[in-house]
Design brief:
Layout (H helix, E strand, L loop, with lengths): L19 H12 L3 E5 L4 E6 L13 E5 L2 E7 L1 H22 L5 H14 L11 E9 L2 E7 L5 E3 L2 E4 L3 H11 L8 H13 L13 E6 L16 E3 L5 H7 L23 H23 L1
Helix pairs in contact: 2-3, 4-5, 5-6
């Protein structure tokens, strides 16, 4: 039996009991840029890597505010994320209007999971091609959830989705015991370390391609935040101090900074040029191996 015999519709099971259309939607999430989420006893943070379609384009937004206490980071199709985020905002607003209280985080994640699951069992629909990391805070404390196009949702201490997310998961699994008692600066540092692990070897994190979202009490010196600490997004110059504190090694600059390569002096010997060529060849080989992964 050929695979494409059973992947033309999302309601047809293969002989192995698989829904190939749902698996394709999960693959779309893996192709999106990485997002990392971590929570402690007091805070929850999201860190995302933004992409630019070209030198003349701005970076795509990866973090969205849903309510004063809830926000999401996405990986996958941005258009699908916009539809689902609007639905989440409607549900959060409805809770405030009808019951005069913020919607619990777990209940909201369950509602979008049910909405996504309907698309996996009704003819003529396709699964959503986007995954979410959802952070929020309620009377039970901070929360971190993952939502997938298959209609499932799980709560985590730390999680990563998107391209090369396994590298970030490896770091998070190794360090997760430190997260519970960490302060906000330590959480962000761990998140940046995990996000950095998803980059190609020659790339680095910059204020242009990195976004941070926080839920929880304000950090020392943080202004304009209530004592309860709602959802807020840090971008640009507000992210730079955290990246500088990361102490990452120098690598290729951001996409919009096309610096010219250094030209060797005329007096340099052939041996020096051969050494430089060998280094360049080694770096290219490592990059090719990483891209094949």
């Amino acid at each position: 039996m050929f695979r494409n015999t059973y992947d033309s519709d999302n309601t047809v099971f293969s002989p192995q009991g698989r829904l190939h259309q749902v698996e394709y939607a999960l693959e779309a999430v893996k192709q999106g840029s990485a997002a990392v989420g971590i929570r402690s006893n007091t805070h929850a943070v999201l860190l995302t890597l933004k992409r630019s379609t070209g030198e003349l384009a701005s970076y795509q937004q990866k973090l969205f505010k849903i309510d004063e206490h809830i926000g999401i980071g996405i990986a996958g199709l941005t258009s699908d994320a916009r539809v689902l985020s609007n639905y989440m905002r409607q549900q959060a607003m409805q809770s405030r209007m009808l019951y005069a209280r913020p919607l619990p985080v777990g209940r909201l994640v369950g509602q979008i999971a049910e909405k996504a699951q309907i698309n996996t069992q009704q003819y003529g629909r396709r699964p959503y091609g986007v995954g979410f990391l959802v952070i929020g805070s309620d009377e039970r404390g901070p929360h971190l959830y993952e939502f997938s196009p298959a209609g499932t949702s799980f709560e985590y201490f730390a999680m990563s989705i998107g391209a090369r997310s396994q590298s970030a998961k490896t770091y998070l699994e190794r360090e997760y015991e430190q997260f519970a008692d960490a302060n906000i600066e330590q959480l962000i540092n761990h998140g940046l370390q995990a996000l950095k692990a998803t980059l190609q070897q020659s790339k680095t994190l910059t204020p242009l391609n990195t976004s941070i979202a926080i839920v929880g009490p304000p950090a020392p010196g943080e202004k304009g935040v209530t004592s309860s600490g709602g959802f807020r997004i840090l971008e640009g110059d507000k992210v730079k101090p955290y990246i500088d504190a990361l102490g990452q090694e120098a690598g290729e600059p951001a996409d919009d900074d096309q610096s010219a390569p250094a030209v060797p002096a005329a007096g340099e010997g052939a041996g020096t040029q051969q050494a430089q060529q060998a280094q360049t060849h080694g770096a290219a080989t490592e990059e090719d191996v990483q891209m094949q992964e």
